[in-house]
Amino acid sequence: MKGKGADHGVMDTSHRRGAKRVDVRDEDEHKGEGEEEYLESDIRIILLNHLRRLGLDAYIVSDKEVEEGSYYSYYFTSSPRVVTSVCCIKVNGMNFDCINLLVRG
Amino acid sequence: MAMEDNNSTSTKLHTYGALPFYQIHFVVKGDGKMFEEMLLARTRKRVKGVLKKSVEDVWWEGGKIVERLNNDSRLKHLLLSVLKGEDDIFIDPVENAVRIYTRFKMESDVTRHLSKEAIEAYNIIAGYVKSIMREFE
């Protein structure tokens, strides 16, 4: 089950702002010759591929400052107490620095 | 033996249910606590209809940033369509960042509401957050 490539055809711009790029498998990576397609279950890949389908230059980075800091100010009553960071996705050309995916619990 | 099996499975059960719930945060890095009073904001909306919902009006409530957000007609136009299937949008300044987010969603809904319009709306909001942070630094 060999992958097509490490960067999946996306321009590596992680060096520009010092973010550490993490190599994550793509949905195409699984589709070897003679293999059947299967439903992707990794939420990181689902979100990443969705953003790429929208035409955005997105890739997963590891950003400890964002992932390990506090997630809520708790001024809003709906803020949960127990959340875990799943991943951090960098999108080039956007005003926000990254997209942080959180899971409850 | 059956009791032991039951105990081992019960410890694996999740507190919040079997299915995970996800939330997407759009993060703008910076000292959010310094601009807390200016940046803390949320949307409010007036919805018409029960089965066929339509958002009639959207406005922002909160700090100084709401003046700029409410005056942006493009953002309002985007939010009228984005908030149809979404909960309110919150701008939440924390210690090392400002986080823009909506409600928690099921795994199947994570990408459903993340349209091009929604990303453009979040991009505009992040732009205003950045401009305020730069202006009052």
Structure, explained:
The complex is a heterodimer of chains A (105) and B (137). With 105 residues, chain A is an alpha+beta fold. In chain A, 15% of the residues lie in helices and 22% in strands. Chain A is built from two helices and four strands; from the N terminus they run E-H-E-H-E-E. Chain A has a four-stranded antiparallel beta sheet with strand order 1-2-3-4. In chain A, a hairpin with a 6-residue loop joins strand 3 and strand 4 (98-104). Chain A is globular. The model of chain A is unreliable at 1-11 (pLDDT under 50). The longest helix of chain B is centred in the C-terminal third of the chain and has 20 residues, at 116-135. In chain B, a hairpin with a 3-residue loop joins strand 4 (90-93) and strand 5. Chain B starts with a helix and ends with a helix. Chain B has a six-stranded antiparallel beta sheet. Chain B has helices at 2-12, 36-39, 65-71, 73-82, 116-135, and strands spanning 21-29, 41-48, 54-62, 90-93, 97-101, 105-106. Chain B has one domain (2-135). Residues 1-14 of chain B have low confidence and may be disordered. Chain B is globular and about 45 Å long. Chain B is α+β, with helices and mostly antiparallel strands. Chains A and B meet through helix 1, strand 3 and strand 4 of A and strand 1, strand 4, strand 5 and helix 5 of B.
Concise overview:
In chain A, 15% of the residues lie in helices and 22% in strands.
User: How many runs of DSSP E, i.e. beta strands of chain A?
Assistant: 4
Tally of DSSP helical segments of chain A: 2
Which structural class matches the secondary elements of chain B?
alpha+beta
Radius of gyration of chain B (Å): 19 Å
Largest sheet of chain A: 4 strands, antiparallel
Topology:
The complex is a heterodimer of chains A (105) and B (137).
Chain A: E1 20-21, H1 43-53, E2 58-62, H2 64-68, E3 83-91, E4 98-104
Chain B: H1 2-12, E1 21-29, H2 36-39, E2 41-48, E3 54-62, H3 65-71, H4 73-82, E4 90-93, E5 97-101, E6 105-106, H5 116-135
Antiparallel strand pairs in B: 1-5, 1-6, 2-3, 2-4, 4-5
